[in-house]
Design a protein that fits this description.
The chain has helices spanning 18-23, 27-42, 61-70, 148-166, 200-210, 217-221; strands spanning 7-14, 46-50, 74-79, 92-97, 105-107, 123-127, 132-137, 171-176, 214-216, 231-232, 249-254, 261-266, 274-275, 278-283. With 284 residues, it is of the alpha+beta class. The termini are close together.
Length: 284
């Protein structure tokens, strides 16, 4: 394998319904479509989507037509929720530009997670000659923290899974991790210590994950940057206007390739609330 790296662009986005972004007609769907078009124009090598909400059979004919118009020189891979999990729930997808590094293998791993988490379509991993690229939609601890115990088991097993990949070759991992790691990563930390996504247990789980040999690329490049978020609550109309957000979407990289990262940023999604896309540029 050559030691010469290639500058590559990765984008990750919790889209909150690919169907709506592709074929929806509401004002929100139109905003989602505009963000999707912006990403297509950026021509990432890899584009990972979380929370596709696609059925097990995948995109329908109309959705595929729109996808092929936007990403005509890409291949795509996906995993969706399957029984006994709910239909049209979770799901992740990765678009790979055909002139990028060749794909050796695509896997849809089970990590031994509890409840129905393993069949909710939450992880997709692509292996290339030089690295693993994996995307995740981490389970939410839920209303009243009803799924917090299961979430802690997920975090432990997911960390083990990434460590197994890292033992073979460097890892680029991205997605919606459903946790704001430090107080700097959300607007109102004092009021949210018992909220899903900012409990001590979830934050400790993320710390343990990083301790397995991974770097939070954004925070390592922007150590003291505050008011930088990737999610704003839809239910609070002023959340984005006031920038009252959380940073819960991440690009993690193996520590040994952190020096290859030259950009880790949020992508402006305009007035659209919920998640914004995130960007990683790396020489690998």
């Amino acid at each position: 394998m050559s030691d010469t790296g290639v500058k590559m662009k990765f984008i990750s986005w919790n889209i909150d319904s690919l169907n709506a972004a592709l074929t929806g007609t509401s004002a929100r769907a139109q905003m989602s479509a505009a963000v999707l078009e912006k990403i297509a124009e950026m021509r990432p090598d890899y584009f990972a989507i979380q929370e596709t909400k696609l059925p097990e059979a995948g995109p329908n004919k109309k959705q595929m037509e729109v996808m092929e118009q936007l990403f005509r020189d890409y291949d795509y891979h996906y995993v969706s929720s399957r029984p006994p999990a709910r239909k049209g729930y979770a799901g992740v997808m990765v678009f790979v530009r055909r002139d990028s590094r060749p794909v050796l293998e695509v896997t849809k791993p089970s990590i031994g997670a509890p409840d129905t988490m393993d069949v909710e379509g939450r992880i997709l991993t692509i292996e290339t000659e030089r690295f693993f690229f994996t995307t995740v939609y981490t389970p939410n601890a839920g209303d009243g923290l009803r799924r917090l115990d299961d979430r802690q088991l997920w975090d432990a097993r997911y960390a083990d899974y990434l460590a197994e990949l890292d033992a073979k070759k460097p890892v680029i991992a991205c997605g919606d991790y459903n946790v704001a790691h430090e107080e700097i990563d959300l607007k109102n930390p004092a009021a949210n210590h018992m909220s899903a996504g900012f409990t001590d247990q979830e934050r400790e789980g993320f710390t343990r994950l990083l301790g397995c040999g991974f770097a939070d690329s954004f925070r390592r490049l922007h150590q003291d940057l505050s008011d930088a978020y990737s999610w704003w609550a839809q239910r609070v109309k002023s959340s984005k206007i006031n920038n009252s957000g959380w940073r819960i979407d991440y690009f993690l990289v193996s520590e040994r390739i952190l020096d290859k990262v030259f950009s880790s940023e949020m992508v402006d999604s305009g007035a659209r609330q919920d998640h914004c896309p995130i960007l990683l540029e790396i020489d690998i």
